[in-house]
Amino acid sequence: MPESVSTFPGERLGLPKTGPGSVARPGRRIGALAIDYFAATLIATAFFGYNQFALPTEAGASLWSPLIVFAVLQILFIPTVGGSPGHRILGMRLVMLGGGWVGLWRPIVRTALIVIVIPAVIWDADQRGLHDKAVGTVLIRA
């Protein structure tokens, strides 16, 4: 018997089509990523400075500081408030598929996979990136 085709993202996961609890759509996800990275860049610039004319060899820590701050924000906010600042601002939260707390290791693994980009841009039919599939989470509308 052939597998049934889902008509909307999250149907196979038992999530509603729209509204609270439905899978967060790409526009919100990308917006949250932009908010988070912009915030990380502001924080990194405030603490580590910025020299737009520095060569990569001269830039030192300031070259990687926005990415490091981004990762720290993700790892701190996901287990404590249910999502990154960008997620929460745009009305989303990260949850376990089976319910319960995401714990500490899932945000670390998920963030590491986001930082290397490829797992975050490969999605399944439910619009879950490989980073979410790897740790058993889903980003939903709050």
UniProtKB/TrEMBL annotation:
Transmembrane segments annotated in the record for this chain:
30-50, 62-82, 94-123
Q: Which InterPro entries match?
A: Pra-immunoreactive, RDD, UCP021697
Supply one GO CC term from the record: plasma membrane
Keyword Transmembrane belongs to the record: yes
Q: Does the keyword Membrane apply?
A: yes
For the region Disordered, give the residue spans. 1-21
Per its UniProt record, what Pfam families does this chain match? RDD (PF06271)
Q: Which UniProt keywords apply?
A: Cell membrane, Membrane, Transmembrane, Transmembrane helix
Please tell me where this protein is predominantly located: membrane
Q: Where in the cell is it found?
A: Cell membrane
Question: What range(s) does the RDD domain occupy?
Answer: 24-135
Membrane topology, as annotated, equals: Multi-pass membrane protein
Output this protein's name: RDD family protein
* Originating species: Microbacterium keratanolyticum
